[in-house]
Design brief:
By secondary structure, this protein is α+β, with helices and mostly antiparallel strands. It contains 17 helices and 10 strands. The strands form 3 sheets. The chain has a 5-stranded mixed β-sheet, with helices on one face. It binds protoporphyrin IX containing FE (HEM). The site of protoporphyrin IX containing FE has 23 residues, from helix 12 and helix 17.
Amino acid sequence: MLHTADVPLYPMPRDTERCPFAPPSELAEIRQEAGLRRVRIWDGSEPWLVTRHADIRAAMASPLVSADTDNPAYPHTSAAIKARRARAKTFFTEDGPAHDEPRRALARDFTAKRMQGMRDVVQTVTNRCIDEMLAGPKPVDLVEALALPVPSVMICELLGVPYSEHDRFQELTKVFTAATSTPGDTVAAAEEMLEMIGAVIDAKVDSPTDDTLSRLVVEQLNPGRMTREEVARMGLLLLTAGHETSANMIALGTAALLTNPEQAALIRDAEDPAVAAAAVEELLRYLTIVHSGARRVATGDFEIAGTQIRAGDGLILDFGSANRDTDAFTGEGHAEPHLLDITRPARHHLAFSFGVHQCLGQQLARVELQVVYSTLLKRIPTLALAEPLAELEYKTDMSIYGMHRLPVTW
Ligand code: HEM
């Protein structure tokens, strides 16, 4: 393994005072270099960093690139995330049939068609949160009032987890993603969440209802295809991935729209839902909240961008960098990729990853974001930040980027 002084540390720091939406500026320089370069991570190992859009797609499509966290060369995000993943391993960190079969068992609950069918429920939940905001005092923290509740209610509804558990699972999810958490903290949080979901599963064994956990009980647990522990781990993955990500996109996306008022006006004044749909793709690209890189390990020798990768090399795929790659995103008549341009065709962004592990919940996230941004801007046309953007606190230290709070007024 290389240990040269010019191997930069990863992740690189963000300059949130300059622009809280921009990825670290070094990434733009690295994208211009020929080949790939190594970076140093928390455990001293030096995986390859892949920063260009085309190179990430090539790597993610390769059968020699593995997501299996049991591989000793896998470049984990932190000691705490490594420990949590070991305690609650799912198809998310498996390859081949161990990934494909459990994913297939879930996929039909998260199709575009089914999620479009949930649009009215998302609208009702969003309206209720905005009604409460408007009835109360100003300023309001949008994270607490809207960004967290909408996706939390939705994922509880879909999975069949009582919403009364939300305070606790939101707290436990923070433990999973915070850089300050120790391995002991994340394992204890995983144990607690598995116990909570296990109790929900037990109740569904006696009386299944119309939701994903009930379907897993009837189709997987009862016939002995999956154990109770495996179903609970899947529930943990869906519950955490299903609320924290969308919540961060709602808050950060609202902040980005409020600081780009001409873009917000396009959504506010639009009658065609295609405008909000395109805006969501552009905001996903522009903000790329999964900002600490997807992690993989090579299981054979191959080349990317002229660099020889060997079996056992770690790989970090930086989606935030790829989503600002001018080769992929500057089109005729559209702004440079470091700018927000909601009219840009951006659907080929990598905010949901690429290849077999591409986000299972992306259609749900799209519906949530489309409904929330457009309803918020239309119902509160005078919505404004209540504190300067540069003074707010960003989740630079967490594996999913976002804002700790977003004070707004109108
Ligand atoms: C804006 C919101 C979201 C973003 C940006 C996002 C992003 C991602 C990314 C980047 C990955 C792949 C990581 C990798 O390749 O290693 C992923 C996977 C996944 N996401 Fe999401 N996600 C979002 C919302 C959701 C929601 C709402 C759910 C809930 C159902 C969800 C469930 C999952 C699952 C289960 C996987 C694992 C898929 C697999 O390994 O096959 N995500 N997500």
